[in-house]
UniProtKB/TrEMBL annotation:
Keyword Nucleotidyltransferase among record annotations: no
Keyword Amino-acid biosynthesis (UniProt): yes
One Pfam family recorded for the sequence: Aminotran_4
Organism from which the protein derives: Terasakiella brassicae
GO molecular function: branched-chain-amino-acid transaminase activity
GO cellular component, as recorded: cytosol
EC number: 2.6.1.42
UniProt xrefs under PANTHER family: AMINO-ACID AMINOTRANSFERASE (PTHR42743), AMINODEOXYCHORISMATE LYASE (PTHR42743:SF11)
Protein's name according to its UniProt entry: Probable branched-chain-amino-acid aminotransferase
GO annotation (BP), single: amino acid biosynthetic process
Function: Acts on leucine, isoleucine and valine.
Family according to the record: Belongs to the class-IV pyridoxal-phosphate-dependent aminotransferase family.
Keywords: Amino-acid biosynthesis, Aminotransferase, Branched-chain amino acid biosynthesis, Pyridoxal phosphate, Transferase
Length: 281
């Protein structure tokens, strides 16, 4: 596989990053994951907007122009023959002698790589996934897409140890924030789509934005507010959204089936509508 490091396209085994890189020492870096369908990037403009927001919040410089980033993403997709999959990009503050204070005028590090994987014919989307609830022990700026992902990794492992696919995380008041790497939704028995409102508590998902726009156009009712695990257990449907899984049915929470334990009608409709738009650019 060819990867990208600071302007160079090299075989992955030849790629080098400094041991002093602050991404490595402090998780002082941000990232984006864009999906690829039919060899083309999906909603990459949205990911670029969020990348700049993350960089600004951390007073971090952009490594190069958006046009250069996108050209490199496209070259990687072509060089690695990616038809369906992901492009990962990460910007860190750069390498400097270890010091908590941000160094001035360091050159940011930019790395990118691709992952080929089937996204459309995903059997998990036919059956849905199960989640368990766990406390949200992440830091207080979850709106910034940083590479500090240790707690989501731990939560995912704990979910798997409990026989589930993923964890839905809960704030101190017992309300669900989001999944380990996705935004969480229910559809109530009255057909209302409920998802937590945007704040520092959750990542502002690019797929979330697109799916809510699609839902509004389809005249579906939406409430952006916190919801509890009990509401999930009483819901008609549940699902999550992310760039890599699109709209994914959730059919079980904490060992209990949601409705009949099968993917819901509105969930499937939103998945189909989202994929259609994603494929047509
Ligand atoms: N929430 C978290 C914590 C995430 O890590 C992600 C994506 O990786 C999302 C939500 C979904 O965001 P997007 O739709 O932009 O992929």
């Amino acid at each position: 596989r060819i990867v990208y490091v600071n302007g160079a396209f090299v075989p992955e085994e030849d790629a080098k990053i400094s041991v002093f890189d602050r991404g490595f020492l402090f998780a002082d870096g941000v990232y984006e994951v864009s999906s690829v369908l039919d060899g083309k990037l999906v909603d990459n403009a949205g990911h670029m907007v969020r990348l700049h927001r993350s960089l600004n919040e951390l007073d971090m410089a952009a490594p190069c122009s958006d046009e250069e980033i996108e050209a490199a993403q496209i070259k990687l997709i072509q060089d690695n023959h990616v038809v369906e999959g992901l492009v990962y990009l990460q910007v860190t503050r750069g390498a400097a002698d270890r010091d908590f204070a941000y160094p001035k005028n360091v050159k940011p590090t930019l790395v990118m790589f691709t992952q080929s994987k089937p996204l459309l014919n995903d059997p998990t989307a036919d059956n849905g996934i199960s989640v368990v609830t766990l406390p949200d022990l992440r830091w207080g700026r979850r709106d910034i897409k940083t590479v500090g992902l240790l707690y989501p990794c731990m939560a995912k492992m704990e979910a798997k140890a409990k026989g589930a696919n993923d964890a839905w995380l809960m704030d101190d008041n017992g309300f669900i924030t989001e999944g380990t790497s996705n935004n969480a939704y229910i559809v109530t028995k009255d057909g209302i789509i409920v998802t937590r409102q945007l704040s520092n508590d959750i990542l502002h998902g690019i797929t979330r934005k697109a799916v809510l726009t699609i839902a509004k156009k389809a005249n579906l009712k939406i409430e952006e507010r916190p919801f509890t695990p009990a509401e999930v257990q009483n819901a008609q449907e549940a699902f999550f959204t992310s760039a890599s899984a699109f709209v994914m049915p959730v059919v079980k929470i904490d060992g209990q089936d949601i409705a009949n334990g099968k993917p819901g009608r509105i969930t499937q409709q939103l998945r189909e509508m989202y994929i259609k738009i994603a494929q047509n650019g």
